[in-house]
Amino acid sequence: MYTQILVAVDSSAHAKTVIEHTREIATLARSAVHVLHVIPTETIEGQTLSMEELATARTFVDTLAETLANAGLRVTTEVREADSRQMSNTVLKQATNRGSDLVIIGARRHAGLLTVFGGSIADQIAHHSRCPVLLIP
User: Fold this and answer.
1) Closest by alpha carbon to 17, among 115, 106, 126?
2) From the CA atom positions of the chain, what is the Rg in Å?
3) Is the pLDDT of residue 100 over 50?
4) Domain total for the chain?
5) Which residues are CB-contacts of 114 (< 8 A; sequence separation ≥ 6)?
6) Tens-place pLDDT, residues 69-95
């Protein structure tokens, strides 16, 4: 039923739970999985994300992807930057560009980027997606 799953993760501990659910679904459906992490690019007085912050994000995503790969799944990863007002659009565009037939995102609400995915961004993705969206509490 699902051949291409896009899972959008933040950098919280809850991302591991989201990945575990993704692993179960992708294994049953024999799906390929694309792990996407979108980092907000808000700047404070001209400061931008450092190379170190981007490297940390890539390492985190690669670690999550390893869980999926170890289950025998085909996995790709991507770290993107976007203005916080465009984060949902970034996820939706990637889902469309990749031909995803399921989007999985976390839906917990607390501090950090998870708030971004757990708040209006998750709502926007769920309401505007061209494919089914699974919210993981």
Assistant:
1) 106
2) 14
3) yes
4) 1
5) 10, 12, 14, 106, 108
6) 999 999 999 999 888 889 999 999 999
Q: What is the dihedral of CA 20, 67, 114, 98, to 10 degrees?
A: -100
Round to whole Å and give the CA distance between 106 and 50: 25
* Cβ–Cβ under 8 Å, residues 79 and 53: no
The pTM assigned to this predicted structure is 0.88
Separation between Cα atoms, residue 121 and residue 106, nearest integer Å: 11
Range of the domain at 104: 4-136
Ramachandran bin of 135, using left for φ above 0, alpha for ψ from -120 to 50, beta for the remaining angles: beta
What burial letters (b/e) apply to 29-51, b meaning 16+ CB within 10 Å?
eebbbbbbbbbbeeeeeeeeeee
Give the three-class secondary structure for 24.
Answer: helix
Residue 69 pLDDT: 98
Greater confidence (119 vs 73) lies with: 73
Comparing C-alpha atoms, which of 87, 71, 63 is closest to residue 11? Answer: 63
